[in-house]
Amino acid sequence: MQLVAENLVIERGGRVIVSGVSLAVQSGEALLLTGANGAGKTTLLRALAGFLPLLSGAVRLEPADDDKPLAEAVHAIGHANAVKAHLTVKENLLFWARFLGGEAGAAARTDAALNAFALTELEEFPASYLSAGQKRRLGLARLVAAPRPIWLLDEPTVSLDAASTASLAAIVNAHTRGGGMVIAATHLPLGLERTREFRLQRGGKAA
Amino acid sequence: MQSHSSNPDQRPDHRQGQSLAQRLANPTRFMELSAKLLPAFAGAATAVILYGLFLVFFNSPADYQQGETVRIMYIHVPSAWLSMMAYGLVAVSSFGLLVFRHPLADVSAKAAVPIGAAFTFLALLTGSLWGKPMWGTYWVWDARLTSVLVLFFLYLGLMALRSSLEDETLAAKLTAVLALVGVTLLPIIKFSVNWWNTLHQPSTGFTTSIDPSMRWPLWIMAIGFSLLFFAMHMKGMRNEVLRRRVKALRLADVARRESAPDPVAAE
Amino acid sequence: MNNFLTLIARDLKLAVREGGAIGTALGFFLLVVAMMPLGLGPDLKLLTRIAPGILWIALLLAALLSLGRIFESDADDGALDVMATSPMPLELVAAAKAAAHWISTGIPLALLAPVLGILLNLDIAAYPALIATMLAGTPAVSFIGAIGAALTLKARRGGLLLALVVLPLYIPTLIFGISAVSAVTLNMGAQSGAFLSSFLILIAISLASVVLGPLAAAAALRIQMQ
Fold first, then answer.
1. I need a surface site. Which of A175, B40, B64, B237 has the fewest CB within 10 A?
2. A64 contacts in chain B (CB < 8 Å)
3. DSSP element (H, E) containing A25
4. Which helix (H) or strand (E) holds C218?
5. pLDDT category of residue C92 using cuts at 50, 70 and 90
6. Among A168, A146, A141, which residue's Cα sits nearest to residue A157?
7. A-chain residues within 8 Å CB-CB of C225?
8. Nearest to C168, CA basis, from C145, C146, C149
9. Most B-contacting residue of A9, A54, A62, A150 (CB-CB within 10 A), to test interface
10. CATH number at residue A194
């Protein structure tokens, strides 16, 4: 399986942010998206998730799965964590486990994800009690709570300490080892295996 | 289909197989064409309205019931007609923007809204001036006046929504959604206002049969006002296209100044 | 369908835990109704006659205050983006959230209305009609309101703008809601007939907005995701 983006041109607010970018990620591979502020990393990731209309070009999964649109094969982790302060840690994650991955086995997946991100101890607390790093981990825990082949991570390590960053790297490595695909925009060397760098220049061109 | 892709029809460089509407929707072609048409429309509007005013003041009878007040009708009726036609134009343009993504559709919608609002206001104003001698008060909750008032509110909503969004592309599309919601609900609103009116005032005694001697000046004024509307709309669209070009140039300027290598890029 | 109910349940849970929002809307409703006699004078006959209008307008204003909540927090914390990658179409997301708004705000407001009717000397015989019309009309309030909430999500002066955009769209709901209750309170000629026709049209308006509202709201949300 591979994710292919061809000749993407993306415009926002009358300005071309990404111009003519093509990329392909193979099953089992992690692509590190690098580039200066304003180079269009976030825009490119959001376009890959299907949130943005393309001025030209196409994004597709090969071989195509006719049952599901691409968006349903994708985890999009953005700057915001999609965490509700008034729900407990477990309620937050259980909702996404069900909503993104279906009812079957949702509780078990939630428990596994809480465990993977070291949140089990905190599961009964309202999310408003969490620190910024803990909230980020709860946001990232969606990745494990609902299995999907493509992970699009926008600055996943923001607010994470060294230990959490290391365990995130381990989780991402496990995902690619299992045949998953990862595209991550990040400034930090995460310690990921099987990575390739993809550099965006200012003006949204591939370097 | 497991992919998201752009619709090939909306790629900028597909010149072949364009329909007439698509070619007209090309801003450059529009600017060329409108530069020629605008003086013609403006001149025709002036001439027809002057002729119409002559007929209205010197060549049409005073009403046996309404007296000289009836002459307000020659402004009121065309304004009321244009208030609706302008909303129709806004709705069609909005549809063109959301569905076909014509580059000029939003320009057209944006230009038509304030002009439509102005004619709606004129219709309300003249209606109320006409109402004072007729009904003894400037405002009655007559079904038509109320409907026009609601239409005026819809125009205000469109202008307010557009002006409160920073991002112009976003503003254009959201305003288009609101315009289409408005045009969908307009018949229901009109129907409910009529129902409400008959419930509270069984008969207003306001009839619409027009004497043939008044019909001709009314037609002339309606044509003149429509020409005026089109001239103003075209002028509004030209202003908007020019404003966007200036903005694009300034954005390009910002981009050029930023393109010099800077330290952040070295990360 | 499962996801639809899951989302409604989550929004209701959030509405209850955040608490303040429902209480504020109910308090506002009470206050507006209580101010009316102070402005109009304590003439009970007059109040009886205009009670349906006062109750409906106050309900609309109270509901308006809470509409912003429908999408705001999910847009702010990125949850709407995540929902866009779920198997559930955004139209159904919007429908579920509007339905949750109806259950958490529309129904409590409708149930409070008869209590406020006492302040306006509303005829006891009109209570069933009042509750019925409000329950039938408030879905339109929530689902049309969802359009306005989605359109003004990123706007400056969101709250005031929301009122300007949405209130004209509420006119049909208002007219038929009031005329149904008035048909009972004013004992208009063929009473049951007058009530029934208004009531049925009100239901039709609600049903139409249950369809139109999510379509338009989802279109507005998609545009803003870009």
1. B64
2. 1-3
3. strand A15-26
4. helix C191-225
5. very high
6. A168
7. 51-52
8. C145
9. A54
10. 3.40.50.300
HSE, CB side, 13 Å, CA atoms: give it for residue A154: 19
Q: Does residue A182 sit in helix, strand or coil?
A: strand
Return the number of other C-beta atoms located less than 10 Å from residue C139's C-beta.
25
Number of domain units in chain A = 1
Q: How far apart are CA A70 and CA C7, in angstroms?
A: 22
Pick the closest to residue A158 from A197, A186, A123 (CA basis).
A186
**One-letter amino acid of C107:** I
ipTM of the complex: 0.89
What domain range is A74 assigned to? Answer: 2-206
Q: Tell me the CA distances in angstroms from B148 to B42, B81, B87, B122, C164, one per residue in order.
A: 27, 10, 11, 11, 16
Please give the biggest Cα pair distance in chain A. Answer: 48
User: Does residue C74 contact residue A99 with C-beta atoms inside 8 Å?
Assistant: no
Q: Tens digits of per-residue pLDDT, A165-206?
A: 889 999 999 999 998 999 998 876 667 777 888 888 776 677
Q: Are B61 and B214 in contact (CB under 8 A)?
A: yes
**Which of C17, C79, C85 is the closest to A72 by Cβ?**
C85
Question: Residue C41 corresponds to which tokens in the numbers above?
Answer: 């004078």
